[in-house]
Amino acid sequence: MAEITQTINPQTDTLTLGEAIESIVSGVKNGQTITIEGFATFSPVVKEARPGRNPRTGQPTTFRASRKVKVELDKRFADRIDLQDSSPAPAPVPAPAPAPAPTPSPAVTPVAVAASVPVSAPVAPVLPPPIPPELIAAAAADSHLKWQIRSPNGGFVEVATAELVAHGVTASTPVWSQATNWQLAGKVPELVGIV
User: Fold this and answer.
1) Is the pTM value of this prediction over 0.70?
2) Pairing of strands 33-36, 183-184
3) Residue 52 has what DSSP assignment?
């Protein structure tokens, strides 16, 4: 029987992937060897019915005739994917740091629910501890600080800490006080969180 070979050249033959697969399937079914240049060769392999032994039981049996496909990669394709080439391997990605252990929350009383309804137990909010009295006193003292800011007419205006936002002061606005001299409002510790 003469071997029939069909060659598909990706540079000149314009086939969609679906058309290429159909061409390979129908060609191999009809006993043809299909070669896609630069990729692979698909050849039919027909095995006749033959006697043998069942691998599980060891009993004599007859294996039925079958048709398989032999796929041989083109050398050019195999060389392109060879992992033994001289190109540097990609750098390993470091494993992410383990997540910190969750803070235990107060106990929650379980609620009886029918078994078929999935329910997640409510989680009580974690409340911060009370504000230390010395911070409250410091915040009250800071609220009376006066800051010099540039006014819209080009002069300077003295503004209390509590009124800075109302005057349009943001973290990038220059402010002045005797204690800090000129600084951006976002860099002044007393104003962090206010502007």
Assistant:
1) no
2) unpaired
3) E
